[in-house]
Amino acid sequence: MDASLHEKEKKQKTTLAILTYDDGKRIFRGNRKNFVDLIKTGEDHGVDVYVTTTDELKLSGSQIVGYTYDEVHKKWKKGLVPLPNVVYNRIPFRKFELLPEVQQTIQSCLKHGKIHFFNPAFYNKWTLFEWLSKSKDTKAIVPVTQKLTNSDELEKMLQKHKSLYLKPVRGKAGKGIMKVSYRNGKNQTGEYQLSIQEKTRSHISRHSSVQQLWSQIREMSSGKDYIMQQAIQLAHYKQRPFDLRALIQKNAKGEWSVAGVGARLAGKRSITTHVPRGGSIDNPLKLLSATFGLGGSRKIIKQTKQTAIILAKQIEKASGQTIGEMSMDLGVDTSGNIWFFEANAKPMKFDEPHIRKRSLQNLIRYSLFLSGNKKAKRSPETAAARKKTVNLRSRKPNALTQKILAAIKI
To answer: A Pfam family in this protein (predicted)?
Structure first.
């Protein structure tokens, strides 16, 4: 009888597959450290997590080939694992995801009656702005954006907005971004300035005509599809612009929530805030307070969280897909208004510890929600930590602690 109950319990246990790609050069693609962290968090909540690839996710039987992590020997083990209840798409590159055989695997999962698949595709920047323009709640948050098609349209856009960002439709991590500005040069003659992001610094060129400008843009864009977007005058910290990064995820109730808000400060010679392009991670409250004060900054962060959830709901609704998480680049202008710049379907790992921990827990709890096992099992370590936290909260903090807690509450 006991053995029968044990078997029943085992069958009902949630299994989460992290889906990635095997290109033949390595065991599988993706951030392995990230996968290990998610596997460990799954263990804490009674969820079996493993990695599988698009080649190995065969849905015909009750088992598939997967990879589990051996913590003792610090290595991956390949073997048979149960068919997953939930599949979390972490295919790392768009070029892999668009392969016909990969699309076939994704579509098979989406059509499978017993598998919940979330985050099925990368976003296209132009499509994102079309989706957000459909709703009056999100339309006003988006800078003016158009497809970059010819020099005439570029010139018209520059007559309305003196500075524009040019972004590849399928770009990632700030790669390929350019900034163009129109300004009065010497002898009151107009000139166009083009800034091209190169790794951690930007290269600047000046052109006397829009035709010359267009010629270089065409050369640098290499035939890729681009959008042109109104440049927003961002708030600055020590003469360097910054923006906010929000991680938005579904929670244990299947509802959108904000795991955290971070900040990225532009490099001294960069036109973007992306860390791979010279930007740096910083505290949003500190950066905002330099312009808006502590009270104003807290209001902006609260408004940022509310705005991010509104945006996430609209993106999911317009996409018609099941989405479990996304990150967003949001700007704050000099007047304190919030602007949407970009959403990422495959968020990079947030380095802020409190955001990182919450993000892993949200992914596991959302998987439990999807599988119908809505109550997470706590490990002895998790329960002990929670008990310790409750005991600490029951004590009244001293004046210094209250001040510190108030300062870091985001």
So the answer is: ATPgrasp_YheCD
Q: Which of 64, 256, 211, 232 is nearest to 161 (CA)?
A: 232
Q: For the chain, give every domain's residue range.
A: 2-118, 144-230, 235-408
d(CA 275, CA 272) in angstroms, rounded, equals: 9
d(CA 126, CA 170): 9
Q: Where are the beta strands (DSSP E) in 301-355?
A: 325-332, 338-344
The answer to whether the beta carbons of residues 225 and 126 sit under 8 Å apart is: yes
> What CA–CA distance (Å, rounded) separates 315 from 307?
12
Residue 370: name the closest of 123, 88, 107 by CA.
Answer: 88
- Give the residue with greater pLDDT, 30 vs 175: 30
Taking residues 213-231, report their average pLDDT: 90
pLDDT tens profile 191-215: 888 888 776 566 788 888 889 999 9
pLDDT at res. 401: 43
Provide the terminal-to-terminal Cα distance of the chain, rounded to the nearest Å: 51
| In the block, residue with structure tokens 């770009």 | 171
To the nearest 10 degrees (0 to 180), the angle between helices 353-371 and 32-44 is 60
How many residues are there in the chain?
410
Residues 211/324, Cβ–Cβ less than 8 Å? no
Q: Which DSSP helix (H) or strand (E) runs through 207? A: strand 201-207
CATH 3.30.470.20 is held by the domain 235-408? yes
Q: Cite the DSSP H helix spans in 112-163.
A: 125-133, 136-139, 151-160
Rounded CA separation 97/119 (Å): 12
Q: Assign domain 2-118 one CATH number from 3.30.1490, 3.40.1350, 3.40.50, 1.10.10.
A: 3.40.50
242 forms beta bridges with 265
